[in-house]
Write a structure and sequence with these properties.
alpha+beta, Glutathione S-transferase Yfyf (Class Pi), Chain A, domain 2, Glutaredoxin, Glutathione-S-Trfase_C_sf, 223 residues, 4 strands, glutathione transferase, Glutathione_S-Trfase, EC 2.5.1.18, binds glutathione
């Protein structure tokens, strides 16, 4: 089963699809990548994720697995090499706890900073700084969330390391400074410096242009 063809339905600018590519790359799994048009969803996407109709979706052995965190755990359980989740049950539970925190909090708050102006943006910014401060504490004294090497939580949070500077640049706001967030700033560099992490990052100019247009759309839909 583990040797059967692996296909990822993704979208090049999706931080959540990138999570899956990172995990597959870290495990050394060959996969086929299909870039989906999220404005004109394919029958393939609707068939493989009929409930949420979203990417990422992993196809393996005739089965479809949706939801990025679920996919990450599936990958970790299917291919045992380079384990992502810690072995200790308590540590595993905590990695899942923090992954849920990132998806329930930062995944909503950072787009709130990006897609708003004025008071709404200010409120999201305050919340984002508070949540990033919580992650900062988790990292203190460690190189990676996973300790000395990249683990589950690094892959879950990885999008923040790459996307946050674009958010700051495009909005003109400063959220994570090297003085106020030393551990997080050092982790951004360490994570993005991992060869298989770096290799999969979307081209910066293309991403900046995409995000700039996306922000304009978000702002005009709100006005
Ligand atoms: N909780 C889901 C969220 C997936 C998600 O929001 N995917 C976005 C791309 S990053 C998407 O497919 N958006 C299209 C839509 O909402 O219609 C996960 O972790 O996989």
């Amino acid at each position: 089963m583990a040797r059967e063809e692996v296909t990822l339905l993704g979208m090049w600018a999706s931080p959540l699809a990138l999570r899956i590519e990172w995990a597959l790359k870290c495990k050394g799994i060959c996969y086929k990548y299909i870039d989906e048009d999220l404005l004109n969803k394919s029958q393939r996407l609707l068939t493989h994720n009929p409930i949420h109709k979203k990417i990422p979706v992993l196809l393996h052995g005739g089965k479809s697995i949706p939801e990025s965190l679920v996919i990450l755990e599936y990958i970790d359980e299917t291919w045992k090499q380079n384990p992502l989740l810690p072995e200790d049950p308590y540590e595993r539970a905590m990695a899942r706890f923090w992954a849920k925190f990132v998806d329930e909090k930062c995944w909503t708050t950072l787009p709130g900073v990006f897609g708003n102006e004025g008071d709404e943006q200010e409120k999201s910014k305050e919340k984002a700084i508070e949540e990033l401060g919580i992650l900062e504490k988790q990292l203190e004294g460690k190189k990676f969330f996973g300790g000395e090497s990249v683990g589950f939580l690094d892959i879950v949070c990885g999008w923040i390391a790459y996307w946050l500077p674009f958010i700051e640049d495009i909005t003109g706001l400063n959220l994570v400074g090297e003085t106020s967030f030393p551990a997080l700033s050092a982790w951004f560099k360490a994570y993005l410096g991992v060869p298989w992490v770096k290799e999969l990052l979307p081209p910066p100019d293309k991403l900046r242009a995409h995000l700039t247009t996306f922000r304009q759309k978000l702002l005009s839909s709100r006005s």
